[in-house]
Amino acid sequence: MLELSPGHWLAAFALGLGLEALLGEPRRWHALVGFGRLAQGLEASLNRGRARIARGLLAWCGLVLGGVALFIALRSLLPDALQWLADGLALWFALGARSLFTHIAAIATPLAAGDLATARAAVARIVSRDCSTLEADGIAAAGLESALENGADAIFASLCWFALLGGPGVLLHRLANTLDAMWGYRSARFLQFGRVAARADDVLCWLPARLTALSYALLGHRRSALHSWRRQAPLWDSPNAGPVMAAGAGALGVQLGGPACYHGQWETRPLLGQGHKATAADLMRGVQLLRRTLLLWLLVLGLLGGLRLCWS
């Protein structure tokens, strides 16, 4: 069966969340590492010559749809009563809450202590911009932007797709999001080959991004968040990062966005949110917003799962 029964869905939900809370991401033999190496090799082989968009489509389908099909095939080998274990492991594989919180704390702690060199090195691990000349407010802003956006990608989109399609859904999102992170750049190398990966991720994250932005607004400064979302998000080049970061900045009462250096070139980005420039304290406030949002989503999804179980 592709769809789990309500009871088995709840069991898989609890297993995935429990493993994430206790263990975080696997430190060794992480499946995404192997997937990334496979993607690198395939891109090196196919991203050349003509018809690069078609080649990118072929690579995306082979890696993402092929990966989901393999998961479904392997899960079908289990007895029906145990297939929820596979879905629970898939949810654990996709979630990145604990890892994200750890990365943000690694930026905020030295930043609060005035150790800008360590804070720059920490933020450079999770953002693609040039961090070598960032001052304290730039470090805090880069970390907070990453926290808000990756919260939508690594936590809430995964939960959304697990709620919709269980293990296959959450795996579909995580693999597609990984390829977007690897191939979705608007550079000469990936502009054509990575176009399908970028557009597919936009489609898969459209609904989760807006639910995340709404959650940020409900749990922060609501009027500021909704105003920033409505006025500023359309100016951002990403259709999903814009609403998430604008609403998050407004919810926290800080200012994000503005000029940033990517791959040696300065980009003029619109301002997001309203209020003061970000600080180390705002980074931790951002983590608290993510934690409250996560708790809200878990309560809602758990309640919906319980109602499905009662009605079945």
From TrEMBL:
Lineage summary: Bacteria, Pseudomonadati, Pseudomonadota, Betaproteobacteria, Neisseriales
GO cellular component terms listed in the entry, alphabetical order: plasma membrane
Function: Converts cobyric acid to cobinamide by the addition of aminopropanol on the F carboxylic group.
Organism, scientific name: Chitinimonas taiwanensis DSM 18899
Signal peptide: none
Membrane topology per record: Multi-pass membrane protein
Protein name as catalogued: Cobalamin biosynthesis protein CobD
Location(s), subcellular: Cell membrane
Domain of life: Bacteria
Homology family: Belongs to the CobD/CbiB family.
GO BP term (any one): cobalamin biosynthetic process
NCBIfam families with a match to the protein in the record: cobal_cbiB
Gene Ontology molecular-function annotations: ABC-type vitamin B12 transporter activity; threonine-phosphate decarboxylase activity
Keywords: Cell membrane, Cobalamin biosynthesis, Membrane, Transmembrane, Transmembrane helix
Pathway where this protein functions: Cofactor biosynthesis; adenosylcobalamin biosynthesis
Residue stretches spanning the membrane: 57-78, 90-113, 294-311
One Pfam family, short name: CobD_Cbib
